[in-house]
Each structure stands twice: as structure tokens, then as C-alpha cells.
Amino acid sequence: MKIKKGDKVLILCAGRQKIVVAGSGACQSDFGVLDLKKIVGKNYGSAVETTAGRKMILAKPSFYDLLAVCKRGPAVILPKDFAAIVSLTGIGKDSVCVEIGTGSGWLTAQLANVCKKVVSYEIRKDFYQMAEKNFKFLGLKNITVKNSDAIKNISETGVDLFTVDMSEPWLALKSAASALRAGGYFVAYCPQI
What we know:
The chain is α/β, with parallel strands linked by helices. It is built from five helices and eleven strands, in the order E-E-E-E-E-E-H-H-E-H-E-H-E-E-H-E. The protein starts with 7 loop residues before the first strand and ends in a 5-residue tail after the last strand.
């Protein structure tokens, strides 16, 4: 598969890795400089040389490679915890999820990677804006983020999963009851317990 201008590429060299955008600027490291215009048209899996003669492998980044470089603000829900949510609720490609507490969007992005649609509520404008930038970087189009308080106002109904990542999750029970379908799941992420 050929690399096109604007594609995100994972560059590997001597056990290190970095995500770059093909066709824009240069990647500078202690292994030399790599002109990112020169990787356009190359195949993923091929090797290119830096100005210092070091070989770098051009790889297609996985979803988690991209997620790992997203900006983080508040604490994030890591893949091990996300895996438990998926396995215990059985959500999948036809699932619709509502989330309260977008934060920097890690759980939202992971949900969107496996579900049909995710609606996420974030009360803080700075977290909302950070999450929006992360979703754009990840190229996720099945997320709706609302900068509002879902405890006071929620319109979704018939959802499969309702997740809460906030300090007082019991405040979301009324919203969850109105949003969930019969047999849907409520998940509260409570690392303080």
C-alpha cells in the first residue's frame, strides 16, 4: 500500500518510533533528518535513509499508535480497562453508546473504534476542545461531542451502553435510566474505589 500526502506514518528506527505526516516538513532525530516529502509514494513496510545514512522503516500506524500520541489532560481510561468494558457488556459494531465525562477523549475514541455511534458529554470547555482536536487527528466520524451537562439535559434514548467517568457517578443514574434501552449497560469508571 502506497503512502499518500497527508497520511500518518509510523517511523521505526533502533527501537524508537514516531508518528509523522507524509509530505509535510522533516523528521529530525539523532539518527539524522528525514524529508517527509520523500516518503510520499513509498510503500508501507519499506525502508528509507536519513541524512546520516540510518535506515528507518515506514509502517502504517495502528489505532493505538495514533491514540498514544493524542493530547492528554485529565486521567485517561487505558486499553486494559476498556477491554473489560467491551468484554463484559458485549458492545460491538452495531452498538450506540453515551458517555458522560469526555475528558481528553480516550474512552470515547476507543468506543468509536468498535461501535456504530458514540455521543459524549463534557461540561468543561477546555476538555471538550481538546477531545475535538484528538477526534479530528484520529479521523473518527461517528462521535458527537456535546459541551453540556448530561445530568440536567440528555436527549438520547435506546442506547446500548451508558458510561460515566466523573467523581460522583450516582448523579448520572437518572440520565442513564432515561437513555438506556431495556437490557443496556451502565458502566461507572471509579478508580477511587
